[in-house]
Each structure stands twice: as structure tokens, then as C-alpha cells.
């Protein structure tokens, strides 16, 4: 298996090692492999294919990092035809952007992925609603 060198902040390495120890991983490499698999398959959900989705997406980053805020705003504009609403708030020492986005899985996952790729973004979280299935009982 190839060896890959990855740079990350000390605080994140500490959390990675603590997580590995607490969950009996063989080491940090296994946690990174599992995290990579989870990230790459996150949107692999056949139930969502072809659905019109509403996504509520939150983005959190340090207050005053204008480079991040500028990139978030650029992405908001690039996805303007799919963004139903956007709110920017200051909570504690963080900027918190809340987006409501409408589109198919490719649109929503693309938006979430681009937000996560911004250096120094702390967290990107989301919930999805399959609009075509609202009010319908699931198939048994
Ligand atoms: Zn702000």
C-alpha cells in the first residue's frame, strides 16, 4: 500500500490520535482511510438519485477570516440559481453561514464539497429533504 504524506495542524493530529485510541483503531492511518472512504461515499445513496432535494447547509469558520468569507460568498454567487436563502451570523468567535439550497444530488453534494474544500473552514454540516417524497410513506 502506498504511503501518503499529509500535513495537518497539531490540534487535529491530537484529536485523530485520541479518536484512534478510544475506538481501538490500529493507528491514525486506519482512521484516515476510514474517513476517506466515508467522505467519498457520503452521497452514494440510490434513494436520492433523481430526487429534487432541499438542503440546509451550515458553514462555520473563524470570525475575521476574510479570505474564507470571500470564498463562501463566491460559491454562493456561483450557485445562485439553486440558493433559496442565505444568512450570515456571528456566534461566539465564529462566522456561521446558513444556506438553503434546492437541486439534485449533484448540485447539493457539489456545493457541500466545494465549501469543505475551503482552507480554514471549521465545519460544514447539512441535512437533506427529498422534496418529491415529502408526505409519502417509504417503500416496504
Ligand atoms: Zn462574519
Automatic annotation (TrEMBL):
Keywords: DNA-binding, Transcription, Transcription regulation. Gene3D superfamilies: ACT-like. Chain A, domain 2 (3.30.70.1150), Met repressor-like (1.10.1220.10). GO terms for molecular function: DNA binding. The keyword Transcription regulation applies. Residues 54-129 form the Transcription factor NikR nickel binding C-terminal domain. One of its GO terms (biological process) is regulation of DNA-templated transcription. Residues 3-41 form the Ribbon-helix-helix protein CopG domain. SUPFAM superfamilies: ACT-like, Ribbon-helix-helix. The keyword DNA-binding applies. It comes from the Archaea. Pfam families: NikR_C, RHH_1. InterPro entries: Acetolactate_synth/TF_NikR_C, ACT-like_dom_sf, Arc_rbn_hlx_hlx, CopG, CopG/NikR_regulator, Ribbon_hlx_hlx, TF_NikR_Ni-bd_C. Belongs to the transcriptional regulatory CopG/NikR family. This is Ribbon-helix-helix protein, CopG family.
Amino acid at each position: 500500500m502506498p504511503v501518503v504524506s499529509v500535513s495537518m495542524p497539531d490540534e487535529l493530529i491530537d484529536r485523530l490520535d485520541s479518536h484512534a485510541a478510544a475506538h481501538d483503531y490500529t493507528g491514525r492511518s486506519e482512521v484516515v482511510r476510514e474517513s476517506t472512504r466515508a467522505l467519498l461515499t457520503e452521497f452514494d445513496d440510490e434513494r436520492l438519485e433523481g430526487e429534487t432535494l432541499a438542503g440546509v447547509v451550515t458553514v462555520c469558520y473563524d470570525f475575521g477570516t476574510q479570505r474564507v468569507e470571500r470564498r463562501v460568498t463566491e460559491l454562493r454567487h456561483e450557485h445562485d440559481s439553486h440558493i433559496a436563502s442565505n444568512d450570515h451570523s456571528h456566534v461566539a468567535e465564529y462566522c456561521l453561514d446558513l444556506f438553503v439550497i434546492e437541486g439534485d444530488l449533484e448540485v447539493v453534494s457539489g456545493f457541500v464539497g466545494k465549501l469543505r474544500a475551503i482552507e480554514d473552514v471549521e465545519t460544514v454540516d447539512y441535512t437533506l429533504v427529498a422534496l418529491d417524497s415529502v408526505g409519502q410513506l417509504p417503500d416496504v
